[in-house]
Design brief:
The protein contains 4 helices and 2 strands, in the order H-H-H-H-E-E. By secondary structure, it is mainly α. The longest helix has 17 residues.
Length: about 120
């Protein structure tokens, strides 16, 4: 079982490496590390830790997509496993025509899209 510090470190590494708003990552990192150093996360179980860190991240950057979720089953962070997940997601998108249900060609070359 990873320690709280390891969980937080991995989360901050991933946010720093790939968050869509890189200008926010420094403030997120500083806010969470300040609380970690102050012992605010000591004694929390993993699920509550993730909820607390999520709340602290969202105080700095109110993006509801950016959050930590705890799973009792270990999740792989290996790139090849992520590639398999991406491949499955892309296959699903293709099977569902990327969410486009209907396209019609109307007069004057207009084509409304029903998604």
């Amino acid at each position: 079982m990873p320690t709280h510090e390891e969980i937080i470190e991995r989360a901050l590494e991933r946010i720093g490496a790939g968050y869509v708003f890189p200008e926010k990552t420094e403030a997120i990192d500083a806010a969470v590390r300040r609380r970690l150093a102050a012992g605010e996360y000591d004694g929390l179980d993993e699920r509550v830790l993730c909820e607390a860190v999520t709340a602290h991240i969202q105080e700095v950057c109110p993006d509801k997509h950016l959050r930590l979720l705890w799973s009792e089953e270990p999740q792989s962070l290996e790139p090849e496993d992520q590639d398999a997940g991406r491949a499955a997601f892309l296959a699903l998108l293709e099977a569902e025509n990327h969410g486009v249900r209907r396209v019609e060609r109307l007069e004057a070359s207009t084509a409304p899209c029903t998604c």
